[in-house]
Specification:
Blueprint: E1 14-17, H1 23-29, E2 34-38, E3 43-48, H2 54-61, H3 66-73, H4 77-82
Length: 83
């Protein structure tokens, strides 16, 4: 998981906000290709070959509980909170 507090690169032109889990986990499981940075504020700045809206992301995320997503990523909710 990458956390970045420096300015976001201009070519990361899409944004998903999620303070519960890292959106990279949901996008990877849904076979989306992307390059991005997850900030400490819960913002995921990324670029992708396709446009992925917050609403589309929420639909993909709703397929599992947060605990299931964290288990798939190899983190528990306590570990995610520490990072």
């Amino acid at each position: 998981m990458t956390f970045q507090e420096t300015p976001i690169e201009d070519n990361l032109d899409q944004l998903i906000t999620d303070t519960e889990i890292n959106p990279m986990t949901v996008l990877q499981k849904n076979k989306k290709k992307f390059d991005g940075v997850y900030t400490t504020e819960g913002k995921f700045h990324f670029r992708s070959e396709e446009t992925i809206s917050q609403e589309q992301y929420e639909t993909m995320k709703s397929e599992k509980t947060n605990e299931e997503w964290l288990a798939w990523s190899g983190l528990s909710s306590d570990q995610q909170a520490e990072e």
